[in-house]
Design brief:
about 350 residues; alpha+beta; Double-stranded beta-helix; 3-stranded antiparallel beta sheet; binds fe (ii) ion; metal-binding
Amino acid sequence: MVQNTITPALLAYSPPDPPLKEFTPAKDRAFFADTEKRSLLSAASAAEDLTPYIGTELKGIQLSQLTDQQKDELALLVAERGVVLLRDQDITLEQQHALAAHYGIQDRDPNQQDPNHVTIIGRGGNIRAHGHSGGEYHADHSFEVNPPSYTLLRLVKTPPYGGDTIFTSQTALFDKLSPTFQKAFEGLHGIHSSDRAYVASINGGGSPHRAPIATAHPLVRTHPVTLLKVLNYNPTFIERIEELNGQESHHILAFLREHLLQANDLTVRWKWTPGSVAFWDNRSVVHRAIPGGYDVTLREGKRTAVYGERPFWDPERSESLSQRLERLGANGHAIGTANGHENGKSEGLGANGAF
Ligand SMILES: [Fe+2]
């Protein structure tokens, strides 16, 4: 049974580490990439877009063999497509740590015991039980002042079926709002809180190393690489909208949850196999691992992530996906780069001109 209440264990617990301090990470590696990603894409046997709005599968390439230039181009592809997916990777855990280090400072989840990675396991039981966690959409620990940016999950073992992960584009979720709602949400802030995760962790026998926090982040954020407007919604951690009254906040969050859950056209669903990898942009993608229906002891993964910038909202420099497409006159579902945005050139969109 899940306990979300104040218990003796909760009252007696004192986390050992101080709160994290805000910091400015090094420049995003995507800015160092060749906007056409020639080195990465020429090394791969195929780069297949899996859906119109999110997800590209790279084939015929090993993460363990990437040059620094290819790593930067991979970051740009992740920023543009939300998630990049690969199968049959031979990368070791040590090599995965080194790859993460290329992109920034290793992030650490409050419940993460090993400083270098999180071990992800299966989720089962009564997944519809009150307070059951793990099946809801989320971006990983968005309550941090510097939430993760680039996040890589590699599954080392998988059940024959079950435990798929669904990724949804928050760039597209913002774009599909009516102009009236877009305007209404711009400038608002969501209060992202780790209270519930903290309580559930301790009551479940965990020992989180930081106290819970609540951080106000823009409800619509500017992606630093693409300069696209991104909905910064997170049904797992947002408790309320800062600027709204109680009932207003409650109903707007209920609307946003329905908007997200209805958006099957803006998702990609990834069926894991041993050695498969999802490398996503935690700033512009929410995800959920489908729980239940399989032997949870058969699912295990290793997740590494790096700290991103503090989410920001820059209305002067950002535009919606539709505005981007209209301005550039691109066909398809293009998510261009900041470079393409600033120069106003469609050449900045990537090797095939439309990502
Ligand atoms: Fe997650």
